[in-house]
User: Fold this.
Amino acid sequence: MSVKISIFGQLTEITGSELELSGIKDSDMLTQYLYERFPDLQHKSFAIAVDKKVIQSNTLLNNNTEIALLPPFSGG
Amino acid sequence: MDGKQHYTERYSRQISLPEIGISGQQKLKKAKVLVIGAGGLGCPVLQYLAVAGIGTLGIADFDKVDLSNLQRQILYTTDEIGLPKTQCAKKRMLQLNPEILIHTYAFQLDNSNVWDIINDYEIIIDGTDNFPSRYLINDACVLLKKVLIYGSISRFEGQVAVFNVTDSHGAVTANYRDLYPEPPAMNEVPTCNQTGVIGVLPGMIGMMMANECIKYITGTGTLLINKVLLTDMLQYRFLEASIEPRLETKKLIPSNRYAFEQKNYGVTCMEQIEYKNINASEFNQLMKQSDTIVIDVREPGEQPIVTEFDCINIPIGNFKEAIPFIKENTVLLFCHSGIRSLIAAELLTGSHKKIYNLKGGIIRWKPSH
Assistant:
């Protein structure tokens, strides 16, 4: 089982703009994994979209789920 | 040509669209839209809404035109540096379309003054550049039931959404806090001043915001309601992600006007321009004051040579190093045409001195003497 992650904004400086991961069951496990692999992410806020839906609570991930990490932008 | 024909002709290209037509144009004319922030996003939004014939437009911005704005804030010109953005934007928009009504608010909007201003409009467009203002505007729009068109940018990427629309069943769609419940920590997210921004990006995102506004008013097409559109102009990545309105969000928003006005949003005046552009007669008046120094930032020997008044010469290339040696409290700057002296004025910003720049330079001053 693998999931594909698109990363936006300043977060790409930490993670790159794409990641492919396997063995991740749900979104909580995903953030846990990302925080361990990229400790700098712990200090960043971002929304998570799972299959193009912004989630606010733990969400199960299926095979080929597309995930996006969306940091807030303030610029205008 | 009578007035009515003239009116139809101005908008004829959009009236010919079956989605807009005469009735759509009338809706645009009746609409009242407030644009908060007349910067990178605000400029294209204001420009396109003005020419589209939005009947009443509000412009809120406390800032003045700065040289570093001109790379993307396309309503302003080089000779308007130092002037209030609201004044310059209004002037330009009325040149583009004298048939519209424009109100300006040339001060910082905060929770003590924003309520009554927002209440006068039906659609609010957020083109601000900081999180405190974005949360303040979102919460005010939720409480006052106003549609909020949101856009934000960073470097090559942008986000657009239409928040807080009340549907025909009375249900209200997602707002900013359904996407980002709370502001990030101070300084966590860098501003455009810190990270830079490509000039075309606010143009593209601003036009999408104006597009959503026109579509909303005319009831055309599919809006970015309960959705946020992310665009990455560097790699052309586009993502439309859905957002659900949540009950939990309500707890984050003050319950009424009183609670809203008591809440600390942390809106503070952002960096203000600390110098003033002055004309020849103001320049002549100010140089007579005590504790004042006149500085020529041209290279030694540049024409015209000034003999009419006392000044010292610090070429712009050496200016930064010379700042600690300027003891006078009032500094008058000039150069050939007023551009290098503007850079000197910006270098002096933050020095707590009164800084004046001779607009148009010594070549404009000379003919009058």
